[in-house]
Design goal:
33% helix; 138 residues; 3-stranded mixed β-sheet; 3-stranded antiparallel β-sheet; binds zinc ion
Length: 138
């Protein structure tokens, strides 16, 4: 199996639970795992295909922290059939949705907010930071 080209992820949006969800969805799709639970099980079992796919994704420390800080909700993300996280822009409450979230908030009575749905983080080719040019050696 040819080595996979390393990619880094760009969460959509940039922060919050939907960003964490977009990172997890991208990881699940990359590894063809149905859930984080299944992905962790494959890692524990040292499945070489999964390890190869997972190590080809460069996840930054901030992104890992973001995923961890929303660990309780991203645990519900699934692929095939896909579930997403929806967050209300009014009250900020999150829930798990399959398909299209309701147009109006149903999480807080009287809230006029509109829920937004998590997507998948953008995969961008990973470019290692160029090593610092050495000071003029002479
Ligand atoms: Zn709301």
């Amino acid at each position: 199996m040819a080595a996979l080209k390393p990619v880094s992820l760009q969460p959509v949006p940039a922060e919050g639970p939907l960003a964490a969800a977009s990172l997890v969805t991208a990881l699940l799709k990359r590894c063809a795992s149905k859930s984080l639970e299944e992905l962790y099980a494959s890692v524990r079992a040292a499945d070489p295909k999964i390890i190869a796919k997972l190590t080809s994704v460069v996840v930054t420390e901030e992104q890992l922290e973001l995923i961890e800080s929303h660990g309780d909700i991203v645990a519900y993300l699934r692929t095939g059939p896909t579930t997403n996280i929806s967050q209300c822009d009014g009250c900020g409450k999150t829930t798990v949705v399959q398909g299209t979230p309701p147009k109006r908030c149903v999480l807080t009575l009287g809230c006029a907010g509109a829920p937004a749905k998590s997507g998948e983080a953008k995969r961008i080719p990973f470019v290692a930071e160029a090593p610092e040019t050495p000071a003029e050696a002479e």
